[in-house]
Amino acid sequence: MTAAPVFPDYDATLRELPTHNGVLRYHEYGDGPPLVLLHGSGPGVSGWRNFRGNISVFGEHFRCLVLEFPGFGVSDDWGGHPMSTALSALELFVDELELETFDVVGNSMGGGVGIGYDLAHPGRIGKLVTIGGVGRNIFSPGPGEGIKLLQEFTENPTREALTQWLNSMVYDPAVVTEQLIEERWRLAVDPIALESARRMYGRVAFTEMMRAMHESDAPPQWSMLHKVRAKTLITWGRDDRVSPLDMALIPMRLIPNVELHVFPNCGHWAMIEAKADFERTVRSFLLQKN
């Protein structure tokens, strides 16, 4: 029987950073060079839930800073589109903590935010690790199955819809325990977090975002990947049903200094479902001499 994982203490690691937009909350654990961990999106998500199982390992070498993005029910909501405010929050966060240079691990949306920061502030991120979610579909249809289920939950937030979405995030359904469902459910139906989610994944909002992207003269992020300065490790679950593996092809080809690692029998949450292999791979990459 596998022992239950031991996580660092939630309250002991929790910090607050007052800003002009409200309070940013984050967790701090470990000593060493700064490593900023950025969570993904979805019902009941938080930085703590994405990375609480990993920071005990990374904290042996790094000062782990797990940022809670505005609009997800932990940090104060800044209003607007949560994906847009996430980059602004990261910019303010690292400046307030006086982090001149730092490394980043970003899950899905968090990886995109890390890339966005590197493009806007070249040279500040030393090494960047992404977990699924970056690039664009080449062979697979988009949006993926997981995104569609996420939209369905956002429109009609039931426990059954949440469970269906959670199952789309993983390869092994045993990962989706009753404890996980209950934990996610409590935050997912928080009125403020749900309203924020609808600004991002409600059908009307999502359709409008896609229309604006297609009509915009601004280049999409994937077309700017050749300008990424950070040494980058792209990690992916081979069986990801949220952002299929073919999305990795463009960033793998365009980012100048990049490696790709694919975990078998693994869905969208490589840091959870392939925990030991993910930690070993990422730790080795982060500790490499430049």
From TrEMBL:
This is Alpha/beta fold hydrolase. Residues 33-274 form the AB hydrolase-1 domain. InterPro entries: AB_hydrolase_1, AB_hydrolase_fold, AB_hydrolase_sf. It comes from the Bacteria. Keywords: Hydrolase. GO terms for molecular function: hydrolase activity. The keyword Hydrolase applies. The keyword Lipoprotein does not apply.
